[in-house]
Design brief:
With about 120 residues, this protein is mainly β. It has no helices and eleven strands. The strands form two sheets. Strands 2, 4, 5, 6, 9, 10 and 11 form a seven-stranded mixed β-sheet that branches. About 30% of the residues are buried.
């Protein structure tokens, strides 16, 4: 069973940047996909960015501002977030999928707050 631990969240002003990290307890080299989701209280969890076999996809709301990447040697996935907006405020979760139909592994989440 793979464990995922997120870090890097915090409070940032609008227009600022943060980099989230997701450390995996096992190799992510053969994982089908790694992704970042986010959730605001009272709303459904939203897929923000996904990386699979080197290809990436993003939610329309973050395209051009967020970048997902992974370092297989460190078993770590990153989410670089630039030009942050108040609407990016959420708990961000790292997730891993063994196949195309569901995410099997989840982290505990890290809070990102964008506010002046």
């Amino acid at each position: 069973q793979m464990r995922l631990v997120e870090s890097g969240g915090g409070l940032v002003q609008p227009g600022g940047s943060l980099r989230l990290s997701c450390a995996a307890s096992a190799s992510i080299y053969s994982i089908y996909a790694m992704a970042w989701h986010r959730q605001v209280p009272g709303k459904a969890r939203e897929l923000v960015a996904v990386i699979s076999s080197g290809s990436t996809n993003y939610a329309d709301s973050v395209k051009g501002r967020f970048t997902i990447s992974q370092d297989n040697a460190k078993n770590t996935v990153y989410l670089q977030m630039n030009n942050l907006k108040p609407e990016d405020t959420a708990v961000y979760y790292c997730a891993g999928a063994e196949g195309p139909t569901e995410y099997h592994y989840w982290g505990q989440g890290t809070q990102v707050t964008v506010s002046s």
